[in-house]
């Protein structure tokens, strides 16, 4: 990326970027999973979970702005160079998974629309088209033209949220009808926390180019909290009223037809672009000689292939897998940076075995809290416990290092 575009992203840029990123079919469908709680309790879980998750997300972004480094590069502070490689590989894999998930979920919604309107039932074709459009979005790059295109896309996506909201909230059964199935409040809150948490390994890839810390932090928080909470609420309402959170069904019921087609495609492209681009940035942490845009294009191509081959739209366990790794990882990093004031990347540090062991403990604890169905979910207690452990043991773990000779 040329130096001319560095540090020039404003609060508006970040607000529209993250608002656009949050408007996706995947977020709407995830919100629909909370329907068994009913609208009122589901709303509380959504807002509380997003308040916690988005705040953690933005704290990670602040590191990127202050140090002007990508998200995964910042993990070298706590884990060393080779330690950051481990997380870079895991992040590329989760981003590849997200790319495939987003393409298949978007393609299924679009295919439902075209099949209803014109009898065009070709899921593979739509997966290829959406994958191709994401590659085009990547090719445009993060220049001034891209920013204008992103602003235009977000305006259209904002209209989508208004239309979907009008469809849902005009139904008076929303506040009294109970959704089908069972779900605890803790599980619901965890699903709300985990979505912003899944962006933690990506946010600094963008906030490192913020004009100021305030621009990056406030813009990212507002854009993602409002957009993602809104998507969850739409999905929650749709699942309660119609037992189907897929926005394609609602848009078809509203006789929006071709407009629905364009909106679903646009929402999928603007969100999946971020996954693919950040996969490229993460690869550069290991192979700095590569071109991030080229890697992102390759990731998109592979993700498109996976979307065609594998049935992966059931992604609740995929979200938990992401949380189990990145909740303890960023708990350690945020504790180091903000509480222990350890902000410097040590050039001779290859691996900190102590913090890696603590991260492994956090992953085990995460799955334990999921199994026990704790009322606050898993992310919040795990991050608190690991942070306390790290504060107590950091002097000891500092001795468990592998450094260059």
Quick rundown:
The protein is an all-alpha fold and 405 residues long.
Structure description:
This protein has a single domain, classed as Hydantoin permease. The protein has 16 helices and two strands. A two-stranded antiparallel ribbon has the order 1-2. α5 packs antiparallel against α12, α8 packs across α14 and α14 crosses α15.
Search tags:
single chain, Hydantoin permease, 2% strand
Average pLDDT level: 86
CATH topology: Hydantoin permease
- At the fourth level of CATH, the homologous superfamily is Hydantoin permease
> What's the β-strand tally?
2
What order do the strands of the largest sheet run in, or round the barrel if closed?
A: 1-2
Number of helices: 16
Q: What is the CATH architecture assignment? A: Orthogonal Bundle
According to CATH, what is the class?
A: Mainly Alpha
Main β-sheet description: 2 strands, antiparallel
The succession of helices and strands, N to C, reads HHHHHHHHHHHHHHEHHE
- State the end-to-end CA separation: 33 Å
Structural class: mainly alpha
**Proportion of helical residues:** over 70%
């Amino acid at each position: 990326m040329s130096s001319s575009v560095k540090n020039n992203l404003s609060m508006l840029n970040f607000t529209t970027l993250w608002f656009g990123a949050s408007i996706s079919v995947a977020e709407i469908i995830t919100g629909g999973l909370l329907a068994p709680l009913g609208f009122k309790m589901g709303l509380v879980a959504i807002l509380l979970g997003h308040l916690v998750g988005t705040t953690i997300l933005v704290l990670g972004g602040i590191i990127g702005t202050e140090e002007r480094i990508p998200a995964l590069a910042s993990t070298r502070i706590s884990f060393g160079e080779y330690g950051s490689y481990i997380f870079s590989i895991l992040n590329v894999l989760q981003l590849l998974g997200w790319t495939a998930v987003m393409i298949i979920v978007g393609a299924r919604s679009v295919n439902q629309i075209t099949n209803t309107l014109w009898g065009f039932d070709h899921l593979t074709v739509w997966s290829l088209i959406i994958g191709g459009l994401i590659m085009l979005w990547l090719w445009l790059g993060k220049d001034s033209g891209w920013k204008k295109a992103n602003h235009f896309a977000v305006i259209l996506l904002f209209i989508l949220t208004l239309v979907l909201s009008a469809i849902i909230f005009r139904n008076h059964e929303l506040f009294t009808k109970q959704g089908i199935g069972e779900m605890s409040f803790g599980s619901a809150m965890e699903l709300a926390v985990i979505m912003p948490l899944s962006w933690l390994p990506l946010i600094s890839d963008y906030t490192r180019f913020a004009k100021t810390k305030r621009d990056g932090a406030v813009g990212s928080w507002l854009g993602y909290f409002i957009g993602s909470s809104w998507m969850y609420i739409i999905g929650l309402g749709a699942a309660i009223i119609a037992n189907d959170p897929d926005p394609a069904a609602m848009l078809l019921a509203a006789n929006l037809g071709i407009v629905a087609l364009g909106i679903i495609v646009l929402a999928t492209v603007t969100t999946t672009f971020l996954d693919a681009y950040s996969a490229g940035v993460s690869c550069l942490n290991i192979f700095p000689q590569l071109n991030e845009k080229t890697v992102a294009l390759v990731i998109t191509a592979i993700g498109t292939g996976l979307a065609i081959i594998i049935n992966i739209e059931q992604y609740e366990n995929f979200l938990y897998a992401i949380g189990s790794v990145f909740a303890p990882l960023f708990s350690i990093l945020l504790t180091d940076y903000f509480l222990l004031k350890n902000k410097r990347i040590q050039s001779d540090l290859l691996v900190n075995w102590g913090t890696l062991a603590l991260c492994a403990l956090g992953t085990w604890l995460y799955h334990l809290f999921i199994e026990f169905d704790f009322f606050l979910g898993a992310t919040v207690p795990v991050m608190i416990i690991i942070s306390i452990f790290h504060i107590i043991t950091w002097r000891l773990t500092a001795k468990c290092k592998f450094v260059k000779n």
